[in-house]
Amino acid sequence: MYLSLRGISKAFAGVAALDGVSLDVDEGEFVCFLGPSGCGKTTLLRIIAGLETPDAAEIRLNGGNLLEVPARARNFGIVFQSYSLFPNMTVTRNIAYGLECRKWPAGGIPARVAEMLALVNLADQAGKYPHQLSGGQQQRIALARALAPKPVMLLLDEPLSALDAKVREELRGEIKDLQSRLGITTIMVTHDQHEAMEVADRIVVMNRGRIEQEGRPVDLYERPANRFVAEFIGRMNVLRGVHGHAAAGIRPEQVELVAGAATPDCWTGRVERCLFLGSITRVTLGLDNLDGQRVTIELQGRRDDLAPGMALAVRLPPAALLRFDDPN
Ligand SMILES: Nc1ncnc2c1ncn2[C@@H]1O[C@H](COP(=O)(O)OP(=O)(O)OP(=O)(O)O)[C@@H](O)[C@H]1O
Ligand SMILES: [Mg+2]
């Protein structure tokens, strides 16, 4: 095991931020910490970085005790959410500075800076100051700066959250490409499930200082361990009273429209909303039975044949139903 975390706990003023977190990360893996605000993602990342001291924990990197290594000596590349470039230094100086601090041979620094700028496609911006760059460019420089000293691990805390949606999507593709090209072990914190699903080999879903579930995106989506994970990763209809389960979950794309007369295994209802979202149409159906609970259905493409007020019958295929024991 490359990075191994055991029993990590941390309280601030008596309130637990992390409650016995254990996790293994493989070399070269891209892991995302995903969870709602305040669940402990940043605290866990900062503990790995050595910027925060855990109350109780064992952390090993390549078998060695990481807690004995001061943050400065850990050689991790770190990028935070807010642009953390030095405002009074050019792009070149920003990247070179970290290398000088780490006592890189001066002769090798310009070439390394140029290599990093080429890596993030910003060679033409070398002489600019941070305020002369767009937000996306600043984060790419922050990434270049973090990677320049050849860190053994890359730690990213919501590096894209300050960017607008389009740039964010572009940049997460770039981060993923970079990560797989360099093969660098990477941990990224995010509360954006789409971001996590797109970049991560493995997602760690956190809630209230604990890990709810970890696994490949496809595993979490298809086999969520509980309702929290089911509702945090993707959309999930949760219905009470279906086929005798306390609560049953079904993904919107698994609900089947039934054409023609309703059969006994169908649920009928009335279309409340019909949203065209480009590649899909999202329909909200108010059921005639089951206390009028709503079901969201996602259908491929544009569906001009459906409109609010229309009666509709759907089937919830038993194989697609997830059973949740907690009725809330
Ligand atoms: N330095 C601190 N002093 C006191 N409480 C803190 C400190 N840092 C974090 N906390 C508390 O610990 C809990 C976890 O915080 P953390 O920053 O790890 O959450 P997060 O998952 O990163 O949230 P977000 O998505 O909002 O960034 C929160 O309740 C927070 O208020
Ligand atoms: Mg945070």
Molecular structure report:
This protein is α+β, with helices and mostly antiparallel strands and 328 residues long. The chain has 2 domains: 3-229, Rossmann fold (3-Layer(aba) Sandwich), CATH 3.40.50; 235-324, OB fold (Dihydrolipoamide Acetyltransferase, E2P), CATH 2.40.50. It has helices spanning 41-49, 91-101, 109-119, 135-147, 165-182, 193-199, 217-222, 227-232; strands at residues 3-12, 15-25, 30-34, 56-61, 64-65, 76-79, 153-157, 185-190, 202-207, 210-215, 237-239, 247-250, 256-258, 266-276, 280-287, 294-300, 311-315, 322-324. The structure holds adenosine-5'-triphosphate and magnesium ion. The site of magnesium ion (MG) has 3 residues, from helix 1. Residues 12, 17, 35, 37-43, 191 line the site of adenosine-5'-triphosphate (ATP).
